[in-house]
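It would be a great kindness if you could assist me with a short task in structural biology. The full record is reproduced below for your convenience:
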Amino acid sequence: QVQVVESGGGLVQPGGSLRLSCTASGPFWTYVMSWYRQAFGKNRELLASIGHVGEHYENSVRGRFTISRDTAKRTVDLQMDNLKPGDSAVYYCTARDDGGAEYWGQGTLVNVSE
C-alpha cells in the first residue's frame, strides 16, 4: 500500500501565501502526483497535477498556485499565493501509479481568514 502524507496547512490571511508539501512511499519517480481540495459542502476538485510530461492546472488556481516536484527528496509541493477566503478547504495529495491506482493522503486543512 502506498502511503501518502501531506503537511503545511494552517491559517493564513487573505492575500498571503502558504506552501503545502507531500511525500509518498514506493517508486516515487513513476507516480503522477496531484493536489485536490474539498471545501465544506462542496465537491472535491482537482487543482494541479505533475507527471512525466509536465504540469496541469485547473483554471481556478492557474497563475496563483504552482506545483513542483523533487524526486530526490520524494516530495511534491504546492505553492499557493494570493490566497482568498474561497481557497479555504482540506487539501489532499494523491499518487497515481502506472496501473492507474490512485492513493490518497489524509488531507491538510487550509483556512484563509482575517
